[in-house]
Amino acid sequence: MIKEWATVISWHDGLAQVSCDVKASCSSCASRAGCGSRVLNKLGPQTQHTISVPSAQPLVAGQKVELGIGEGSLLTSALLVYMTPLLGLFTVAALFQLCFGSDLAALTGALLGGVGGFLIARGLSPKLAARDALQPTILSVGLPPELLRIDTASSEMGQ
């Protein structure tokens, strides 16, 4: 089970809108200064993802929830997104190479197969997303924000 904390935006009729922060791929490694992934993450936009998750328990905006999704679900999605265009690319490129016998035909077939595979993955993804087994679930719920209190006076007295 892959777990991630999210913040509740709203809750209505058993459906919670939650926001998950996009995290950089690394932030605590000893080689942060020379890491290419860290540099690339700084270039891209730091966005948030908003998703709907069923919740029978009433939730309050600002409340933290822990979401979980099965590893099998994530692998299925990754296979669909990455392997379908790749399979289309190689298959159609090989067919065009066999039929027309030129590298230009193979290149054209590769482009058509890659785009076709992408379109197939795009068409299949809503059907897969509708399955309950592939949906994230709420594993645990944190306290509402109005119940949390941080007492800074006691920590200042001890110093």
Automatic annotation (TrEMBL):
- The answer to whether UniProt assigns keyword Transmembrane to this entry is yes
Q: Which residue windows are transmembrane per the record?
A: 74-98, 104-121
Q: Does this entry carry the keyword Lipid metabolism?
A: no
Keywords on record: Membrane, Transmembrane, Transmembrane helix
Query: What would be one Pfam family of this protein?
Result: RseC_MucC
Source superkingdom: Bacteria
- What is the official name of this protein in its record? Positive regulator of sigma E, RseC/MucC
